Amino acid sequence: MPSLRWRTCATLLTAMLCAACISVNFLPFPSSIEKMLPSPIRLGLDLRGGIHLTLGADIDQAVSQSLALMGQDIRSSANDAGIRARLFRHADGRTLEFVPLKHEGIEQLSNLLRDQFGQMAVGSAVSSGTGEKLLVTFHPEWEKQLRERIMDQTIRTLRGRIDAFGVAEPDIRRQGGDQVQIQLPGVTDTSRALQLIGRTAQLTFHRVRSDTVPGTPMPVGTAWYPLAGGRKSFSAPGKADFSSGLVLDKTPLLSGQDIVDARPAFDERNQPCVSIQFSGRGADQFERVTEELIHQQFAIVLDGTVQSAPVIQQKISGGKASITGSFTTEEAQDLAVVLRSGSLPAKVSVLEERTVGPSLGADSIRAGLVAGAVGAAGVMIIMQICYGLSGLLANFMLAFTIGLLFAGLGLLGATLTLPGIAGVVLTIGMSVDANVLVFERIREEIGKKLPIPEAVKAGFREAQTSILDANFTTLLTAAVLYQFGTGPIRGFAVTLALGIMASMFTAIFVSHLVFDWWIRRNGAVNCGLKPHTA
């Protein structure tokens, strides 16, 4: 019977693949063989232990910085067009103020903004003590899109840093308008993880103001920045302590958004540093800025701290630079990781931090195993009592179903969570439903005096539609849970869906195959499915 042989080969191949996928969780394999096998089943945060974080993103500050950089681009374009204007930024951080040096500059600047900067909303000219000024803001619709892009980029950047950190199967998702939820299973170095994830890594380049005198008020548009490793203090409100910091222009001349590569390296004194490479656009800006600042100090600021402030001796072309400071080798590596994955467009702060210990995960696994064992034992005993030899077949199919479920978790690279264990326990109870439908249908056919082979065929044929309908609706429910649920709920949905598909395969395909082999070998011998007596 070719059909019987084909089904037997398919079942044996499936069983072998299932055994191989499960064995990687318990047995060591040579590296050459291990590469061909799926990864072991990953355990989620609630089973393995790790860190749960809720981060808040400062979107307003990021929009303000984007506006400041846009102001630099506008002023550069205006200079290229022969329009000279001073640039100021309002205290609210949402408005730019341009004061042209010539009266006709107002109209020329307005036309330039409308032609080249469509994302900007240009207000009417306003008279002031220094002359007419032009107020410029982001268009509301553009600002809304910008906020969405900032949040999306924040999540992508965090994901890149976590992947570089080597965390297996992290869960990173947006929560509300400006929050990000992160789960890091298996992470033990909490402080380093927090530093790597939460570090803004905003790299900016500022002009050092050499026209300030210690003990005197700082000029408008400037701010005091602490030196790396120095004291972060002031000698008086609004007056800088030059022993621990520098006075810089608040508005950066260049940002690190155009960095395309960052690598740990060593400087000429054999001290750890970070070598950076700008994109084509960033290289052009870097060259222009260094040309303007020849024989002036140029501060490299990382997250509000001055790392170095060299004097520019000549124009720097090629888009290459290095960040020096009091770095250890590990700190230089971490800084290169965060710069390479991109600076966070918005500063993030830790709103919630929870650490799940591995002992709690071990207790959860132990409780899940006990629940699964008790449930499986109860189901097997009932099936054996009610259906005899066919009940024994159903018990073997139950074990095969659970094996297929765990093999599927390994093949898909899914993560097993505590709700996922609940899905496994639920599968144990649901997987025998199809067998019960088939067995009861066969009993009905035997009660109609049909021969055993015909009763078996009719039982599987008539029960198949009911089995598919019932399981298809459950699969739809699992799909909805996976699409709209959070991490633990998605873990439950995955195990539930895999369990349903595995139970349909074993109940409809494998069980039918075993019945066909039984009938072929033993003829019309009853398999323990006697018709019910009235």
Description:
This protein is 52% helix and 20% strand. With 534 residues, the protein is of the alpha+beta class. A hairpin with a 2-residue loop joins β15 and β16. α1 (2-23) runs antiparallel to α13 (487-522). The two termini are 39 Å apart.
Largest sheet: 4 strands, antiparallel
Order of strands across the main sheet = 7-8-2-18
Oligomer: single chain
What sort of overall outline do the alpha carbons produce when their principal axes are compared?
Answer: elongated
The overall strand count is 19
Helix content: 40-55%
Give the DSSP E fraction (strand runs of 2 or more residues).
Answer: 15-25%
Average of the residue pLDDT scores:
79
Distance between the termini: 39 Å
Total helical elements = 13
Radius of gyration: 34 Å
List segments where confidence is low: pLDDT < 50 over at least 5 consecutive residues: 231-241
Structural class: alpha+beta
Features:
alpha+beta, 534 residues, 4-stranded antiparallel beta sheet
Task: Please give the structural blueprint.
Elements: H1 2-23, H2 31-34, E1 42-43, H3 45-48, E2 50-57, H4 59-80, E3 85-89, E4 96-100, H5 105-116, E5 120-128, E6 131-138, H6 140-165, E7 171-175, E8 179-185, H7 190-198, E9 203-207, E10 222-226, E11 245-249, E12 254-255, E13 259-266, E14 272-278, H8 280-292, E15 298-302, E16 305-308, E17 320-323, H9 329-340, E18 348-356, H10 358-412, E19 415-416, H11 418-447, H12 452-484, H13 487-522
Parallel strand pairs: 1-19
Antiparallel strand pairs: 2-8, 2-18, 3-4, 4-6, 5-6, 7-8, 9-12, 9-15, 10-11, 13-14, 14-17, 15-16
